[in-house]
Structure prediction request, 54 residues.
Amino acid sequence: MEGYCVKCKAKCEIKNGKDVLMKAKGGKQRNAHKGNCVKCGTVVFRIMPNTPAK
Prediction:
């Protein structure tokens, strides 16, 4: 999976990625994928679409 590294200023592969929940407005939570940049090792996030409630 790819994410945008702010330090490298380019898209990069996410190494050691895992799915996490981030805080959002109104006490809600957002799905995200968190890992490290392959080139520089900086933490990289990719916000994923929320799954619809059933």
